[in-house]
Write a structure and sequence with these properties.
The structure is a homooctamer. By secondary structure, chain A is of the alpha/beta class. Helices cover 47% and strands 16% of the residues of chain A. Chain A is built from six helices and five strands, in the order βαβααβαβαβα. Chain A has a five-stranded parallel sheet with strand order 2-1-3-4-5, sandwiched between helices. In chain A, helix 1 runs parallel beside helix 6 and helix 2 crosses helix 3. The radius of gyration of chain A is 16 Å and the shape is globular. The N and C termini of chain A lie close together (8 Å). Chains A and H meet through helix 3, helix 4 and helix 5 of A and helix 3, helix 4 and helix 5 of H.
């Protein structure tokens, strides 16, 4: 009984923005004909950092400059997580990525199905998030395979 | 990963009804091709005041005349806020506008993303609402820019 | 800002099944071109009473015969109330109509906008429900006018 | 594993106010030492009808007189139902008792355990409510026995 | 069946801070022996305005000074409203009082029982809030009478 | 007032995977032209057991092999139950089928309308689930008849 | 920072009723001085089976006899699960135990922390429930150790 | 109107475990006589890492060893966050601290009042969490001052 026939799955791709993992997932799921609608945070780092002051005017303090930008980005991310069926959270080797972990917690509290995507070197640091996730994938290809199976 | 491709954003435009700020936002977002569906309270002041007695019959007391009308208007506003993804609340220079502040509180408790729109002279009086909003815009154009960014 | 352009309003018409008030509302809203999708309980009294034993087999006791039928009817009514934006509850002059009052309470607890429809002779008996309703109409025409205004 | 040791069960007794069924239940559960805290709507019919105008001032129209009183009574009933673990709804032989059916629907939508209490002559008219209730009792004594068993 | 015996009612007193209406209500309910626990926003206007910069350090801009203070005040108000059974909102003759209207909307969306308290001159401006409230009182004494009745 | 005209009913078919009951229901509802969208867990037993290790790599321990597979299957089942209007749970004569009972509990807590489908020999063992279900059917044909009635 | 000082943990012990696992857990946690309040379904098998007809009168059919009893038992179990912080579900070697699996699903959908307790021979059959549980224990002693650690 | 008189505030202290910030907050609030009940995750790093295998038996793979421990820790943290009124999240200079960010997201989605505590060097990396927090403190003393003000 194929759920793909009757609904599009909304999948939010949270986390790391410095590699092309989202595009890999999107291309392969498209090639596989899966009925998925992906969304993500803004992945243009500079635009994401500057949107607050670019749109709403400059700030003397870095804290408030960040605050204004993060507020606008949160309009996008919280709305899309609330609408999502599945949230995939990718952690890369660099940077703090606390927004990714925040998204994971936000999604978990709302009862969304969570998939994490990261290398084994991060396993210990991500154990609290992985234990709540329904699956921990190592490669974008594995995420695609999970989706292909789940939607088959 | 463009969320615009896969969903229409439902945006409720609450508050001031004595200027054309809604039309400005609607025209510019349409010109920009953004996938948004705007809704609002009834903005015809006289119709809004009289709908209760016009439809359901006259009342001797002003309190109950208002009560009947406000009840009917609430069918519209609470339904549309519950369905909205984003709620924009505009405060103008005149009038009490308590219904706008009420809508903001109602939307906030439901977890909707909130944007306020008002002049700097109202900043102090609106601080409790602005601190819950994700962004405070000064012009309709800024609201459009926020939406264009969030939906890009 | 016309919400009719962007969404269909789902309206559940609960209560009295011995007059044509639903058809009156449906015909007039259709004539007015309102974007509404009406639903209702099963209004064929005999089918409604017998569905349990007709489908699932006979019962010796009247209590369980009713129980089986009411369970099946509840699949319909609770699902449709949960999906509705607005619930209209009609009380007529005859019968107990406790299911109508139950539907009103169920809808109220879920935050649905409630409209009651009944004659003035029932005002005192219905005061607890009317005080929670957003409007009390006296005629199907008034319900149509409320909808026409709310969706304008 | 006796839950009585560790919690008091909050039980709202809704419905008919013209017999002493609440007192019967209260006395017998007290005699049995059950850890229950009963609450109810105001059962003084005249006080309940007049509270609105007695406190907030007179109304020319019966509809609004009822409306004011019912609003105040709803402060009590909705708060107590929201806090209750179990809601018992009693239907007697007389009167419309639509508020009782409304309370039942309100409680059911909030996931409260529901017990109905009425004679067999009302079975058919109450089938929609009985099918949602966890038990249908015929006497206050049976309600006490249910509570004694559930809390044993 | 007296609910006062078994529970304390938590009542949040929102709104106007320039008269002693809260004290009047508290003294009279205490005199009447009602089992209520009142709470309120911080009613020291200057402390409320300055708490952000007093605790977390100065801000050059008035907007962010207000923002910091309003955030801290919101910790108190949203927590207390979420815990409240009843929310009383008082509107006085002066000031914008948008925070009071925001609190009313916030409480309404959470299903709290709402009581408004204001003069008749504000009826038209407050009609959207009054229509959602369970009662509109004119004096603190009336609020006390409502509570005395509801908890009797 | 036919709800079929305006909405597709989403029905999750949980439980036994060793007979063709899902296909029987699907074929007969299709023949009847009912507007339903069925979904189900993965019904290929071997694929369901192996999906975890097939996609995410081998496990030495049977417990974790099962854990990985069950996590992936849960992405599908919990998402589809959350989206469903009605959940049908079939219990067959063999196997433990604890996942079916788990799905029934999960659906019940979310307020979904529940239909059970099983032989009379399982009545006693399933009494806790049947008492929460809106109907207990004995054959796929009866499920189809219930749906045909509910959607008529 | 010891949470035991400030709150009692409410723990519902669901499932198998043919061994003394509940008593083992209760005695050891009591000996350890843990601030827990245990509750459970009625564990007297015969009383549980007969409560419906014993209290509410006989039934000719086994299905309705079970139905009446299960309804009364559900008043207890659903109330206690809703109030619980943690739900422990024990599966023994014998019987269908579908009510235990139903309780697990019910608790999971409400966001309760779930602990399963069973032998390794049941691992494969319970994989869907274990993957949602926060821990799978093999002995009552392990459950006690988990609680002692969690509350330390 | 002092809310301290009538309720204890439950405050969960999440995040960094390598300095004595929790003890500082606890001592100063105790000295100030504030009615707060603090809770926290297990702050013994080694116990936290090993609890899974210590209680439930060894694992060959590091991933599952972490998984078992993190599951048990989650029983504590999710229960305490759900019960909390306020969640304070501390980020220190070292380590990934993704569990702290996860807790923040989890608390935010549940509508808890959030306070962050960190140095300015982390401002940019924490902007998404700070924008959702009601206050960002730099020292434990500031957290105490916020609590003293909020509970005054």
């Amino acid at each position: 009984m194929n759920p793909s026939k009757d609904m599009t799955w909304r999948i939010f791709l949270s986390g790391e923005i410095h590699s092309d993992w989202r595009e890999q997932i999107a291309q392969r799921t498209e090639a596989a004909g899966l009925p998925v609608a992906f969304s993500s945070p803004i992945t243009d780092h500079e635009a994401s950092d500057n949107c607050g002051v670019d749109i709403l005017g400059p700030e003397a303090s870095g804290f408030w400059r960040d605050h204004k930008g993060a507020g606008i980005n949160a309009i996008r991310t919280t709305t899309l997580i609330r609408r999502a069926d599945v949230v995939v959270v990718r952690f890369g080797p660099d940077y703090r990525q606390w927004n990714a972990a925040f998204d994971a917690g936000y999604a978990a509290a709302l009862g969304k199905a969570l998939i994490t995507l990261h290398g084994e070197d991060l396993d210990h640091a991500l154990k609290e998030i992985d234990t709540t996730a329904r699956a921990t994938a190592r490669t974008p290809e594995q995420v695609v395979q999970i989706l292909a199976y789940v939607l088959s």
